[in-house]
Amino acid sequence: MKILALPRDANPYQNLLYGEMRQLNVQVSYMGRLTPSRTINLLLLPAELAARRLAGGRLVHLHWRFAFAVPGGPRSPALRRLAQAWFGIWLRTVRLLGMRLVWTAHNVLPHSPVFADEASALRALVRASDLVIAHSPSTLRELSALGAEPRRTAVIPQGRFAPAGPTASLPTPGAGGRPCQFLFFGQVLEYKGVEELLRAFADMTEGVAARLTVAGDCPDARLRSRLQALARSGGERIALRLERVPDEEVTPLLAAADQISYIPQVGRVGSLNGAAAAATATAAAGPTPATRPGRARRAPASLPPTHAQAHAATARSARRQGTRGDRAGWSRTGTRRRNGCRRGRRP
Fold this sequence. Notes:
CATH architecture of the largest domain: 3-Layer(aba) Sandwich
Order of helices and strands: EHEHHEHEHEHEEHEHEHEHHHH
CATH topology of the largest domain: Rossmann fold
Strand order of the largest sheet: 2-1-3-4-5-6
CATH superfamily of the largest domain: Glycogen Phosphorylase B
Strand content: 5-15%
Shape: globular
Helix content: 40-55%
């Protein structure tokens, strides 16, 4: 089987997934990387599809729609309309070439604006997809709520990111009179609501025994500046670590937290930005995580019900897998994904 994947992302998810699928004799190559220019690569996508089809490629695996975002699009409705039209051309090209399209619905809608009418573009994508893969059933419910009914679906939870260090038993939250430790962990982007989280802590009364740590790279200089100002107003109760956390420090960082906190933007359907981090946090909870998965489930309680259910499902899945055996978890994910892709191919 040959899979043409789009887009390539720095997230370790693709390396782990496709690494296991390659062990199953699946050939994977990435599209949209012909030149150093992202814009030129976007314009070349239909031609690249035709060339790949001639070379024997028959199955396209789309992950994230940000691959079709044009420079300046978030600020320009006209450019977003252009991006949506080009996306429609690309979808029709896939069909005209007799190729099959598998879409993994990491997010129901993009976190940042890509198209002029996101719901319409979503429905066009689902209609064009021979198979839609979701990480949890709640994603399929969200698709249905927006009028996007896939012809074929497969629910395949993602594998779990391994603890990078030894785990240990966890103290009771707030034990020994210490403040309750809250943690935001992951790349710090505007849609994740980190500003709202910092404002909440900055506005807390002095008598509340709680501390917040924000740990993760923040590529947006303006957002970084705003967060630093909010952290200063919060005093000692807020600690910022706006950098990539080394792998060997992830497990101790997560194990020290009583609560993993995520606040997606209100009204943004499909903002399941904490799903992978929830699994990682659960993995760091030690061999018998009696309370940690429960805290991971409660963390997104303010989200719409489908979001909370997805986080809960992720936590339960990670707990079932245990704290080790991560290779086995991704192996199962890779095998199920390969089988799902086979379902999406022409008979």
